[in-house]
Amino acid sequence: MHWSRLIFHLMLLFTCVLNAAQAEDLPKKSKPLFRDFMGINGHTVNFRPELYGQVCRLVRDYHPMEWDTGPDTNYKLDFPFARNRVSWDHVYGSWKKAGFKTDACVMFETHKPDAWHDLTADSHRYGKLFAENFGPSSKLPLVESIEIGNEPGKYSDEDYRRVFENMAKGVREGDPKLKIATCNVNVGKSGDYHKSVACVAGLESLYDILNIHSYAMLEEWPTWKRSFPEDTALPKFMRDIDELIAWRNEHAVGKEIWLTEFGWDSSTKSPKPDGDYAKWQGNSDIEQAQWLVRTFLLLATKDVDRAYLYFFNDDDAPQLHGASGITRNYVPKPSFYALAHLYGMLGDYRFSRIVDVANSEALVYEFAHESDVNKFIYVAWSPTGTNKTTMVEIPATNIRVEFAETMPLAAGVAARVELSSTDDTIEIMIGESPTYIVVTHK
Q1: What's the CATH architecture for 351-441?
Q2: Which burial class, exposed, middle or buried, applies to 411 when counting CB atoms under 10 A from its CB (0-12, 13-18, 19+)?
Q3: CATH class of the domain comprising 15-346
Q4: How do residues 205-249 score in pLDDT, each as one tens digit?
Q5: How far apart are CA 344 and CA 34, in angstroms?
């Protein structure tokens, strides 16, 4: 082995050991408040901040680098305008005005690796100018974070590392306050839609966030069948997230983890009898609503700092990722109302603990208010995927129940739920749609 490579590997090994030791000494980090946790994927001029502001205040944009440069990666950038004359000041400015914090996912993937004028210099220059013009320290502080790539699976690991390292260096020079995230990464080998986290090993000073996409895919092609989030038969959904958390704890202590894509397709149409999606299986609107909400709740228990659902809107296309919107042609689906309710109920709360209940067909989580130590919300649901209802007894000593209501599926006030309570328990019937029980300590 060449001496320089030996030294590099020894330094990397030392860093891993040091990070592991530091991880044991770090104080336990507080879980994020739901208003700082729930996000949505939008897309440039098509996103309507006034509409989706009912659901969250975090938005992730698919920002096409090619809009800014055209086919010439060394094009003289004219920010805040894209080369196609879209005004990022207008787009991201309207989002900020509506109260959103923007994460820009810079998609450079449409530029093939050999089509760059100078991959190293051009990626550095783009990152620097983007940060200077849109970062928190700029005259137009419109973007909070930047992702370097979305799903650049067609780039070799070496080429992705070159783009990432040089664009990240440019971002750090342009505005050190602009947070940097990786593309979609997994532990293990790179694939068609993700890069191995090994691609950024040793570059810890150049990123703040490890980024991952994960879908509850029970089957791949040709059905693309997805299941409910708690399904133990799912081969990868939560496993990939847990593996990335473990990798971070060992190799990149202190870095945030964002899940920036998860979701379910729900279409009112059947797929065409021929073509790639002839056997595609979607989910119902109600399943989409229940499973999106429950996934946010499940993720709140993990060391995940943010979660962005996919997608904001669809045109009812019965195919993979073609019906993932929480609106259909900008008309709210049941998931829109369920998520708006979740955001309204838990926005000022953070995950506290999993409540131990005797019923194996029930999950009950406790969420604590950000400042009032006497205010809590229990969220309870049946995680069976069978539309089963079940009675659950929740231990609740010195608790006063204010009210209980079930996740809504339409506009209007959520339906209140009857329950019975004693000095030490709450008894309530629950189903697949989460029920919120608002309580205070006596």
Answers
A1: Sandwich (2.60)
A2: exposed
A3: alpha beta
A4: 999 999 999 999 999 999 999 999 999 999 999 999 999 999 999
A5: 9
